[in-house]
Specification:
With about 210 residues, the protein is mainly β. It has one domain: PEBP-like (Phosphatidylethanolamine-binding Protein). The chain has two helices and eleven strands. It has a six-stranded antiparallel beta sheet. Strands 1-4-7 form a three-stranded antiparallel beta sheet, with no helix packed on it. The protein has a two-stranded antiparallel ribbon with strand order 2-3. Strand 8 and strand 9 form a beta hairpin. The longest helix is centred in the last third of the chain and has 8 residues. The two termini are about 30 Å apart. About 35% of the residues are buried.
């Protein structure tokens, strides 16, 4: 399979229009346009009955104590974990494109609805946990929400856009399912996959 993420070249920085957070000299970070990029895929194998689209960041600090704290940095030596930014399942086999802005166009305080969306079924991304302690933003975040890595992180983050062709029409996931639920449900059903990786940082020393 081949995957194209329009505006994002392999290994290159992700444009700010696709980001949840953009660099700000005054406050380190301000909200970005948060539009999902257009993605297209082709050459799905015979027998494909549905697709899964996901985007995740494998470079998120496993301990958040120093995240976005003045006078501190998030060490490059800290163990990292996956943070899911976009989960769409049960995308019909006759679909091979998601237009820019179709699943997100702006930051939605308190999140977007999970369940059936414009294309496929939306899973819950990890902003749900990340913003849980913020009374203005806390909620259930589903669909696409773009990059917003810690502005004091010593490493550049890598964002993996993936499409998976499956041999089932539905993964049978309901409610507030997350990235780990999707990975578990996909096991044994993936016919082929493709990936594009973009980078992003809010650390002025790395920009």
């Amino acid at each position: 399979m081949k995957l194209q993420v329009r505006g994002i070249e392999e290994g290159q920085p992700i444009p700010e229009k696709f980001a949840f957070g953009v660099y700000s000299e005054e406050d380190h970070m301000s909200f970005g346009p948060n539009r999902n990029p257009e993605i297209t895929w082709e050459d799905a194998p015979e027998g494909t009955k549905s697709f899964v689209v996901m985007m995740f960041d494998p470079d998120v600090p496993s301990v958040a104590d120093d995240v976005n704290q003045e006078g501190k940095t998030v060490s490059k030596d800290l163990p990292r974990v996956d943070f899911f930014h976009w989960l769409l399942v049960d995308i019909p086999a006759n679909v091979n494109r998601i237009p820019e802005g179709e699943d997100s166009d702006g930051v939605s305080p308190k999140g977007k609805d999970h369940g059936p969306g414009p294309i496929g079924v939306r899973g819950v991304n990890n902003y749900t946990q990340f913003l849980a302690g913020n009374p203005d933003m806390a909620g259930t975040y589903a669909g696409y929400d773009g990059p917003c890595p810690p502005w004091n992180d010593e490493i550049i983050h890598h964002y993996q856009f993936e499409v998976h062709a499956l041999d089932v029409e539905s993964l049978g996931l309901e409610g507030e399912f997350d990235g780990n639920d999707v990975r578990q449900a996909m096991k044994g059903h993936v016919l082929d996959s493709a990936r594009v990786t973009g980078t992003y940082t809010l650390n002025p020393d790395l920009r």
